[in-house]
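Re: folding output
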Amino acid sequence: MGRKQLTSDDVLELGRQSLLAGYTRPALSSAGAPWEGVEVEVFDFSQPTCLRPVSFSKLFISTLRAGRARLWTEHERNLREIAPGNTGIHPAGMPFGGSNPEPSAWITVYLKQSLVKQVGEEFLDPARIEIVHTVVPQDAQFEWLSLALEHEIKGQYRSGRLFGESLATALAAHVLSRYTTKRLTIPEYRGGMSRYLLQRTIDYIRNHLGTDLRLSELAENVGMSHWHFCRSFRQSTGMSPHQYVLRQRIEEAKRKLVRRDADLSEIAAELGFNNHSHFTSTFKKIAGCTPRQFRSRS
C-alpha cells in the first residue's frame, strides 16, 4: 500500500468522476435478508468508477478482490493506493471517497452501531473503544467471515438467521479486538453456562425447532449478550448454537421418520428447513445417510 499527497487536480478529478459515476447497483446484496445487525454487498465494476465522498451510519468494511483503487479520507487528506486483498475499516460517521481506475471487484459489509455497541459492552472497559480508520494488507478472519455471509446470500439464507447473526457477532468482536485506538481484549468466560441456563436454552431450542431462531432471542432468554451467549454455549456443548440447533432438528427428524406415514416434505417444513433438498443434504451430512435410507433401516 502506498500513499501520495492529495492535490487540487486529484480533487477535481474525484469530483468529475463522481458526477459521471452515478449509483452502481451491487452484483449481490443481502437486502431482504433475515439477519439483524449486518448487511452485505458485492460489487463488480466493469469500468473505472468513483465513489462520492460519503459517510455511513454503520461500521463499513470493504475488501478489494480484483483491480486497483485509491482511497481518500477527510482525516488524512491524502490518497492511499489499494491492492487486491486489502481491507478497509471505515468507522461510522467517517467521510471517505475513492476511485477505481480500472475494472474492480469488492465485497463490503455494514455492521449496525447497535450490534457494535452490544458486542463492545463485553470488553473490560467499553468507554475506551474507538474504532480507527485504517487499511490492512490482509485480514484472513474477515475474509472467511465475509465469504461465509456471501455464501449464505447465494444459498438464499438456507442456514437461517442464527448462522448469519452469529457470523456478524463474530465479525464485530474481531474488529473491536484488532482495530481500535487502544488494543482491547475480550474477557474469557471459563466454565461455560450454568447447568440451569444451559438446560433453559436447550428447552427453548427444542420448543422452537420449527422456527427461524434469532441469536437475540436465545441470548435474551438467559439474560446474556450475543457474544457472551455464543462463547458460553460453545464451551458448554462443544458446538455453536447454529450447529446445535441443526443437530436437534435432525434428531427430531429421526423420531418422525420412524412413523412410516410421515411425509418427508412435511417433516422438512415442520423442522424449519427451506425445502426437501435442504433437509436431505443436512440430514446426510449429520446422520451419514439420507432420510429415506434411515427410514428403510429403522
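--- second protein (sequence, then structure) ---
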Amino acid sequence: MIFAGTPSAIAVCRYELAGWLEQGTTLSADGRLRLVRALNALPAGVSLANRRDYLPTLCGTAEDDGEADVIMARYRSGPQLTVWVRLGLCGKLGASNGTRTGQRTQSLVTALIAAGGAPAGGYPGAVRPAQ
C-alpha cells in the first residue's frame, strides 16, 4: 500500500522534462479517495516500457528522468507523504512513496488523468513489469 488511510488534502503537480512544472491541482474529497484507492491497488514493484514500442536512444539523459507527477498528501495528524509517479517512457515506471512501490498500470494512468488532466504529449505505449 502506498497510502495509509485517506489524506485530508492532496495536491498533484505534473513536472515535464527538465523539471518544469506543467500543471498542478488540489483534489476534492471524492478525488482524493479515488486516487488513494488506485494507488493502493497497484501491484508491487515497478514497470519498464516495452522496448519494441520505442527507440531506446530516446532515453538516456538526465532530463529523461525529470518527467514525473508528484503527489503531496497531508493528514490531519502525522507527517506529510510525498508520492512520486513516473508514467513516461524512460527508466523505472510506477509510483513510490520512498518505502513502497507500485507498477504503472492503466488504472494508475486513468486515475492521474482524472486527478490532473492529461499531459500535452500523452503517455506512451505498453509497459511490462521489471524483472
